[in-house]
Amino acid sequence: MRMDRLSRDSMPANADIRIPGSEHIFISNRSIFSDVIEVFQAHQDIRLLPILDEDLRPLGAIFEKDIRRILFNVFGHALLKNPGFRSDLEPHLKSCPMGEADVDVARLLDIYAHADARDGMILTRNGQYHGVVSTETLLQLAAEREGARREAMRQLSASFQVEAANLADILQSASNSLSTTASETADRAAINRDHAASVAAAAVQVRASMKSMADECGDLAGAMDQLHQSTVEAKAAAQGAVSLVAAGGVRAASLAKTTKSIEKILEFIQSLTRKINLLALNARIEAAQAGDSGKGFAVVAQEIKALGDQARTATGEIAGHIREIQTTVTDVVAGHEGIERVINSVDTIFHSVGGAVEHQRLIGRRLAEDAMEVAQAGEDICGNIENIQANTIAAAKTSSDIRDLACSLSDGSTTLQQNISSYISDMRHA
Fold first, then answer.
1. What letters, b where the CB count within 10 A reaches 16 and e where it falls short, cover 192-227?
2. pLDDT surpassing 90 at residue 125
3. Most-buried pick from 236, 275, 286, 422 (CB within 10 A)?
4. Residue 92 to residues 4, 71, 181, Cα–Cα distance (Å)
5. What is the pTM of this model?
6. Whether 130 contacts 124, CB under 8 Å
7. For the structural domain made of 207-392, what CATH number should be given?
């Protein structure tokens, strides 16, 4: 017999999905086949009849199309009257897609699609029968879902197109900025390369000048060595003159005049020595500043040369007076003690001159060493400038590569924008 139908209070309906009244259309698994035919005859619009167990849980369904095949068969009625025909429902029970009424529509549609059903779907609530959803309703929900999906896809594609266009514009702007910066860097690198070449040429010239100056300072130091040796020899000669004092005595008056001339010359030599010392100091100062031009040292060197000429003239005059002294001393018979004092004074003067010459010789040596160090520094500068020039050329090459990369990036951004537009168009027409 048919099972009592559930009341509306015990089976709350979902009016948005269920077929109206379908929550009351079902049959017990203990019913007979004639009960099924009776339900289909009473509800000709239904396409499936749920079969429930004693706990109101769906076991499956009997489909209207299967009943029609039996009833419309020429032997259908005879078959139903045949006592051998099984009246139980098990042979006619088939599986049917089922879903909980509380789940979302998308989940119900997925269950229905995977079941590959044609005639509807059974809804349950907590496992108990809740109603039936028609195929038409499911198809309408699927269409609405597809429309919503398409609308969401349209909105997403529109948003994606805007963002992609913005990204392409950013890439285009970045590539343009990168290209401009690379071009400016390449131009500056080219200018720096030319400047480096000019500085390298100037450094080579300075190096040659400093080497020449170092050589001249070496020659000056050698000349100072010779002058020192000559001073030593003159001092020895002055000391030997003491032995000749015993022969002097005749022309003391003439010897006194000659001695006064010698005193004047010696004063001149002393003045000359002071000038040489001052010029030597100036030469050291100029040598320290000679890293830029070296012109100051050239002027000082010229003055030293002029003073050297004057010193040689004074030395010649001294030699002449000494010869006069020697001639006079030959005739001197008297005044031995006075001549001896004069000779001692000459010895003291030569000793002072020798010290000054020694000091000047040391200064010349230091000037030569400083000039050599400056020349070596010029060598180092040339080497560093060559490295700078090479690095500048490499930087120019790198800037050129960056500019090419920026052009490629610009082309890539344009292609990306075109591809995105084509993709969005294809998505909209899909």
1. bbeebeebbeebeebbebbbebbebbbebbeebeeb
2. yes
3. 286
4. 21, 13, 82
5. 0.38
6. yes
7. 1.10.287
